[in-house]
Amino acid sequence: MNLIEKLQEKYIQEFNDNIPLDEFILNILVVSVLVFLLRIFYIRFGTAISNRTRFANNFLPLALGTLLIIMIVKSSIALSLGLVGALSIVRYRAAIKDPEELTYLFITIGLGLAGGANQPILAVVAFSLIVLLLYIHNLLTGRKNFKQEDRLFVNIHTDLTDLKKITALLSTHLPYVELKRMDTLEQGLDLSFICKADSIDQISALQQSVGQLSPQTRLSIIDQPDLIV
Questions:
Q1: Which sign does the torsion angle of CA 62, 36, 48, 151 carry?
Q2: Which of 34, 70, 137, 148 places its Cα 20 to 30 Å from the Cα of 199?
Q3: What does the pLDDT look like over 55-107, one tens digit per residue?
Q4: pTM value?
Q5: C-alpha closest to that of 65 among 46, 87, 85
Q6: Tens digits of per-residue pLDDT, 135-187?
């Protein structure tokens, strides 16, 4: 028996003793399927304004990474202590712009933890109940998901200084308005908004109303489906 065969026999046997291969594959498959379903649910029913599709792409690597860490930690106390020391020197800088994003990250981590702890049934049952309760909560509260393809970047350059009046005008015609930037000019304001429009009629009505503010007021609207705010 050559060296390669000895190494293969040793490490494969050690792997099977700590984590049976069939359970390892089952946990990875179950977690992957659940995270994929969570991704679909978040994109469809989430309310975050940011690019939910791009953000949800992080769910699978996060869940599988968590699964791997838990499987390694539970097989060795020494490794678990080393992991604590290693993570203590790592500083994570994640730009979480909406509490909803953090909530779904915790759900993803929870699925990874369940898979790493060899609890696929618990992961399936918990995921089913969580998704069901979230769906019922959205129905009861009347929350509507924010369609990414409806997002608009609205810029208003005006000689007026009444911010409330301009914001109220936008809110009258558009279902969603959020001020992102305001620049004070020598005469007037330069305002940038993230908005949502359901139809071209709303944009047309907004154009006419903004034009009536003052002769110096200028309106610029850009479709930004992939804008991350």
A1: positive
A2: 137
A3: 889 899 989 988 888 887 776 665 565 565 555 555 556 566 667 888 898 99
A4: 0.60
A5: 87
A6: 898 888 765 554 555 678 899 999 888 888 999 999 998 888 888 888 888 88
Say if residue 220 is exposed, middle or buried (CB neighbours under 10 Å; 0-12, 13-18, 19+).
exposed
Spell 114-141 as b/e; 16+ CB within 10 A means b.
bbbbbebeebbebbeeebeebeeeeeee
Decide: residue 206, CB within 10 A, 0-12 exposed, 13-18 middle, 19+ buried. buried
Backbone angles phi, psi at 196, to 5 degrees: -130, 135
Q: Is 85 exposed, middle or buried (0-12, 13-18, 19+ CB in 10 A)?
A: exposed
Q: Tell me how far apart the terminal alpha carbons of the chain are, to the nearest angstrom.
A: 60
Q: Which two tokens stand for residue 124?
A: 């399936």
Q: What share of residues in the chain are helix, strand, coil (percent, to 5)? A: 60, 15, 25
Q: Of 46, 147, 156, whose CA–CA distance to 105 is shortest? A: 46
Distances (CA, A) of 39 to 114, 116, 137: 17, 20, 18
Token output for 96: 């979480």
